[in-house]
Amino acid sequence: MSALFSPYAIGNLTLPNRIVIAPMCQYSAEDGNATDWHMIHLGQLAESGAGMLVIEATAVEAIGRISPADLGLWSDANEAALGRVLEGVRKYSAMPIAIQLAHAGRKASSAVPWAGGQLLPPAAGGWPTVAPSALKYLPDEAAPLALDAAGLVRIREAFADAARRAARIGLDCIELHGAHGYLLHQFLSPLTNLRDDAYGGNLENRMRFPLEVFDAVRAAFPAGKPVGIRISATDWVEGGWDLEQSVALAQALKVRGCDFIHVSTGGLSPLQKIALAPGYQLPFAERIRAETGLPTIAVGLITEAEHAEEIVAKGQADLVGIARAMLYNPRWPWHAAAKLGAQVEAPCQYWRSQPRGLPDLFKGAHIGMR
């Protein structure tokens, strides 16, 4: 039996297999509202046979968007638009669907990637950004505004409000975005957090705001539904956030009822030095899993079915996140199941595509014609 295609429970949510479609920004929303693109994009991924789909980084307030075209969940209009998309997707797919709630902090107000991805000034549709400390991401950029006490309360409540909206539209799970140099990561790292109050300085203080946000979201989301977090386990910069601190954070999250940890790396500093290779982030996920026992999602240049199978079979991680490989091949789980001798869910409209040499690939498939 394939380890990758065995079921797995995150809290009260049981996934049919260990493949998680990791969140991928689409930069195709209008004023934070999901559009027909999201119906097309999420619809095809929801028919892929993966164990769970995580919707892209979704801003909890307008100034927390990475770009003006980011998805949001801060308003009634945002909630209605995403609810419409989910209603359409759920007519044809029972796949568990999560959402990644996010705030970009100093990395907000950026152009979309295909327009260069750089900081947008207000004259070009950008806005002033906020961060733990007034530190620029790049030397020629405007500095963000350091958040005051009222700003911290506002953002914490915005995360909780977004969690309540997520619950109302029937999402199964929440993943907080604490990775890739965005706001929660900015609080964690000593490179971007130079505060001298209770939210800066030592590790306990730097973890304080992300943990408060987790607590607020956990309290706002139904108790039977899982809440987890994605982190960058290292900044890949000397003197920055690292694996030891990530383990401490994971332990603190576990005490608070965190259901899983999605382990990525980097994104905080342009000075990062990363040696890319298949599974290059896997040792971080493996260490955090071993020391905390938290259900762990591994991600990072995992593109081959055999590699994903090995990760789960060896206990290096509980789940495997597939992102860009899913965009390139939205039927990645079908092909993985075929390689590993497993079965996968497929919509009945596609049962006739089952390869002749794999009569048991699609669960429950049966065809009759006159």
Characterise the protein shown here.
By secondary structure, the chain is of the alpha/beta class. It contains ten helices and twelve strands. It has helices spanning 36-45, 76-90, 149-168, 183-188, 203-220, 243-255, 282-292, 305-313, 324-328, 332-340, and strands spanning 8-10, 13-15, 19-21, 52-59, 97-102, 130-131, 145-146, 173-178, 227-232, 261-264, 296-298, 319-322. Helix 1 (36-45) packs across helix 2 (76-90), helix 3 packs parallel to helix 5 (203-220) and helix 5 (203-220) packs parallel to helix 6. The longest helix has 20 residues, at 149-168. It starts with 7 loop residues before the first strand and ends in a 30-residue tail after the last helix.
Name the features.
single chain, 370 residues, alpha/beta, 8-stranded parallel β-barrel, two-stranded antiparallel sheet, 10 helices, 12 strands
> What shape does the CA trace take?
globular
Beta content comes to: 5-15%
Total DSSP E strands: 12
**Strand arrangement, major sheet:** 3-4-5-8-9-10-11-12
Summing up helix and strand content along with how strands pair, one would put the structural category as alpha/beta
**Percentage of helical residues?**
25-40%
Low-pLDDT sequence parts: none
